[in-house]
Specification:
The complex is a heterodimer of chains A (307) and B (357). Chain A is mainly α and 307 residues long. Chain A has helices at 5-31, 39-57, 60-84, 89-107, 133-137, 142-160, 162-172, 174-179, 184-210, 222-232, 237-259, 266-286, 288-294. Chain B folds into 2 domains: 25-130 and 255-278, 3-Layer(aba) Sandwich (Rossmann fold), CATH 3.40.50; 132-245 and 285-342, Rossmann fold, CATH 3.40.50. Classes of the chains: A mainly alpha (307), B alpha/beta (357).
Chain lengths: 307, 357
Amino acid sequence: MDISVVSLIASLIVAATPILLAATGELIVEKSGVLNLGVEGMMIMGAICGFIAAVNSGSPFVGFCIAAISGAILSLLFAILTQYLLANQVASGLALTLFGLGLAALLGHSYSGIKPPSSPKFEWFGMSDISIIGPIIFNHDLMVYFSVFLVLIVWIFLKFTRAGLILRAVGENHDAAHALGYKVIRIRVLAIMFGGACAGLGGAYLSLIRVPQWTEGMTAGAGWIALAIVVFASWKPWRLILGAYLFGGVTILQLNLQANGFAIPVSYLSMAPYLVTIVVLVIMSADRTRASVNAPASLGKIFHASS
Amino acid sequence: MKLLKTLMAGAALVVGLGGMAQAEDKTKVGFVYVGPVGDFGWSYEHNEGRKAVEEAFGDKVETMFVESVPEGADSERVMTQMALDGADLIFTTSFGYMDPTINVAKKFPNVKFEHATGYKQADNVAIYSARFYEGRSVIGHIAGHMTKTNTIGYIASFPIPEVIRGINAAYIAAKKVNPDVKLKIVWAYTWFDPAKEADAATALIEQGADIIMQHTDSPAAMTIAEEKGMYAFGQASDMKQFGPTARLSSIIDDWAPYYIARTQAVMDGTWESTSTWDGIKEGMVGIGDFSNDIPADVQASATALKEALMSGSTHSFTGPVNKQDGSAWLAAGETADDGTLLGMNFYVEGIEGSVPN
């Protein structure tokens, strides 16, 4: 039995990063009062568009930029449907997922079996040689650090800036925010586009770094996990990291335990990540008052200026 | 003028009837896939079979398919829809479609069904599968020779007889040429999830495996093996493009001849509910080219094994073989019967861990 904790933590961070990126985006979207269930669709669009861009340009950086843009463009479709045409958000989000999966399969038709340019590890001036801490913290690609940095930015934005306060006001009570003169629709569209861009980045992390290849339907439910993790985090940015790393950690741990031949029933191990998510969700929502305080009050409600 | 109109109407009617008659002549064949057709593995090869049917029969046949259909209740809906759309023959291509296929077949006695890799037959449900374990023997033989850490990683999907059979066949062949070989098995509990398959491959490599085998459908593990400088085998499809240096060989499924023959049988009205289990000999299981990294003597012995399996002079499960708990299964020289193989739910002696239930 020699499960190396160091390599375990290093791989759980890689497994958690796509979910963390997508969940960070969705957190902002939900904080503005919009429920976008299309995370999966935007992720897979980011995965294929980022892949195509990276392969053709030879640069993973360009790939990630295009992935963010494509995710944002796809989310704009959702924004138009729900914010201007006042369509139902749940139905539009589901439609976005189906549309994204189909469009990505079409775009990616000739990109199967191609190897993307590899993303270099971020250079920490030799700090990756430090024992234990080095491989865990200082031996990743840039996107891993970016995903954590993004959580920091989102936290500062929501907690300490005026713009963040306005975004939260729109999500809590859109009529009051509107009465105060804030552009509810515009703010929400921007939030949705930010969410799309983050989901796109998460998808590209899958196709460019974690797997790395393009296969149809390769997100395989990661978008739904991201949605669950937002609730799990009770809409608090730092808890997103906890949720994503916990989920990634249990996934990786169970695979390593199996590879090591531990005599724990495998079916329970495979269930574990989902079980842990459910258990924490139950604990989180046990205290009704606290849960309802945390959820944005206008979440999923349609806003129209005349109402 | 009136006459002309009547003539034209009559002509139109004839053309119309002709068109209808032609439409009825067409044999409609449906396919239900568990993954996307672009998975470059299992579903991809079934879809290649579908294309071959279209090519062989041209206008006489119309095919339809639905991809990424979850195993279970949802597949029943898909099959029912296909039957209502006038399908004459429906291929359901994953183990988990077994009970749904039987259920739907009861409701549509005039539609012929073909279920892959299962064991439940009915008057209008035939079953078919390939002896993938023969391919496993060949790649297990190669892996036994090629591993330097004496550890082979195996990504398994679900604990069903077909998968357990593959594990046993690979292990027996590897052990024969390398008595020190060990098998590390990870159950992914999915047929298709590239990210999870990649994580499983990474975990196995971290635990000391230098050769990866898989019974899942995507080429993700091959990509990881390529990245980490390890070896792997193509599964269901050749997968060479995903691991130019990592790929040692591959097990390739070829469903086209079977699909064409069964479609022909429906057209001729000679279709019967049968149970087909073909292997390397019949061409349903193919072995991909050998990588240049495999030494010439190993290539030669692997080819010899393949030919022996084809001729029937060797069987993948030839005694003496004990079960994992040490009890005797096959006596020296005895070969396994198909019944035991089809219901296989035990590991052979030497494999560590237990079969999940």
